[in-house]
């Protein structure tokens, strides 16, 4: 990057870490962290690329927010409590206004979850943002994708399909109605389910966050757990905003295949159902075998789309 690189870092990213466990933060060759002996460190990293994971022209504050949100969602799916992050920022130019807005969006979400930025790097190149997050989970209490068993019930948090629908609205520069604004926000500012993940770690048998699409991600959970699943299409939590803008078939397509929701999908033993908090919806059950099937009113249904790449097939999106 330009001569201004160090100025940029100092001005927008080097904040005093408010966490007592950060012994040495930004400014030296590396950070030093104090870790307690009775907890495990959980680490995740996700990269987002302009034109691949978010449209060209997305506001810098939204990019900053989203870059951290997708990572916190992975920690949430593990039942972990977020603590720190590092940031790798590749930008075509070091434009101060853009970097200031990016940092504002990033820290807005970081402050909500008590996450300290402890290091990173800036380079000149195509717009690529990598965030690595780390957090804690109690010994032997982390969630995985691999613990689901036949008879477990499948739940999902919040509503599904809104983020993919919001992206299609953004890509088509669709109407500015209130419903479309709320859908666009779902794509631009995903809300990682950290608190839910912390609760689920006490009783869920398996969990993962929905990033690629509900059915595609359920395929992964079932493969990891060596089981199958049945999803009741009629039970999918589809929001009023979705129903206002799209017909039933498109709502179902977005809900099953859309991705980018960053909701948590999890499984519980039937005896533990009372522990599932409000705001989560039962969508199906874990079965024998390896197939993930869909039903409606008790009968098998064929699904039009199991998952798709928004940017490769935007013309064919529902
Ligand atoms: Mg994930």
From TrEMBL:
Quote the NCBIfam families the UniProt record gives: thiL (TIGR01379)
What is the reaction catalyzed?
Answer: thiamine phosphate + ATP = thiamine diphosphate + ADP
| Protein's pathway | Cofactor biosynthesis; thiamine diphosphate biosynthesis; thiamine diphosphate from thiamine phosphate: step 1/1
Q: What are the transmembrane regions?
A: none
Please state which protein family the record places this protein in. Answer: Belongs to the thiamine-monophosphate kinase family.
* Free-text function comment from the UniProt entry: Catalyzes the ATP-dependent phosphorylation of thiamine-monophosphate (TMP) to form thiamine-pyrophosphate (TPP), the active form of vitamin B1.
Q: Which residues does the annotation say bind Mg(2+) 5? A: 212
Positions binding substrate in this chain are: 53, 260, 308
More info: Reaction mechanism of ThiL seems to utilize a direct, inline transfer of the gamma-phosphate of ATP to TMP rather than a phosphorylated enzyme intermediate.
UniProt xrefs under SUPFAM superfamilies: PurM C-terminal domain-like, PurM N-terminal domain-like
Can you tell me which residues bind Mg(2+) 1? 46, 121
Does this entry carry the keyword Oxidoreductase? Answer: no
- The record places domain PurM-like C-terminal at 149-268
Kindly provide the name given to this protein in its UniProt entry: Thiamine-monophosphate kinase
Which Pfam family, giving just one, matches this sequence?
AIRS
Superkingdom classification of source: Bacteria
Q: Which residues bind Mg(2+) 3?
A: 29, 74, 209
Q: List the EC numbers from the record.
A: 2.7.4.16
One biological process GO term for this chain? thiamine diphosphate biosynthetic process
Q: Which UniProt keywords apply?
A: ATP-binding, Kinase, Magnesium, Metal-binding, Nucleotide-binding, Thiamine biosynthesis, Transferase
| GO molecular-function terms, A-Z | ATP binding; magnesium ion binding; thiamine-phosphate kinase activity
Q: For this UniProt entry, which residues form the secretion signal?
A: none
Q: Which organism is it from?
A: Povalibacter uvarum
Binding sites annotated in the UniProt record for Mg(2+) 4: 29, 74
């Amino acid at each position: 990057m330009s001569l201004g690189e160090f100025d940029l870092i100092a001005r927008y990213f080097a904040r005093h870490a408010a966490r007592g466990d950060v012994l040495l933060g930004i400014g030296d060759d590396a950070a030093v962290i104090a870790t307690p002996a009775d907890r495990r460190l959980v680490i995740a990293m996700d990269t987002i690329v302009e034109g691949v994971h978010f449209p060209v022209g997305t506001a810098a504050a939204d990019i900053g927010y989203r870059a951290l949100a997708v990572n916190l969602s992975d920690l949430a799916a593990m039942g972990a409590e977020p603590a720190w992050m590092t940031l790798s920022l590749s930008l075509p130019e070091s434009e101060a206004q853009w970097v200031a807005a990016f940092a504002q969006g990033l820290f807005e979400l970081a402050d909500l979850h008590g996450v300290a930025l402890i290091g990173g790097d800036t380079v000149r190149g195509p717009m690529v943002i990598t965030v690595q997050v780390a957090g804690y989970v109690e010994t032997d209490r982390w969630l995985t994708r691999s613990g689901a068993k036949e008879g477990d019930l499948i739940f999902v948090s919040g509503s599904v399909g809104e983020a993919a629908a919001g992206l299609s609205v953004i890509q088509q520069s669709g109407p500015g109605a209130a419903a479309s604004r709320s859908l666009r926000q779902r794509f631009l500012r995903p809300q990682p389910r950290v608190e839910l993940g912390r609760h689920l770690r006490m009783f869920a048998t398996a969990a993962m966050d929905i990033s690629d699409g509900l059915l595609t991600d359920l395929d992964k959970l079932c493969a990891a757990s060596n089981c199958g699943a049945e999803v009741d299409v009629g039970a999918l939590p589809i929001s009023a905003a979705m129903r206002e803008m799209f017909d039933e078939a498109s709502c179902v397509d977005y809900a099953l295949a859309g991705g980018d929701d960053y909701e948590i999908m999890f499984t519980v033993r039937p005896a533990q159902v009372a522990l599932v908090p409000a705001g989560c919806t039962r969508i199906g059950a874990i079965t024998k075998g390896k197939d993930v099937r869909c039903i409606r009113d008790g009968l098998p249904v064929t699904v039009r789309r199991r998952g798709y790449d928004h940017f490769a097939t935007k013309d064919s999106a529902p």
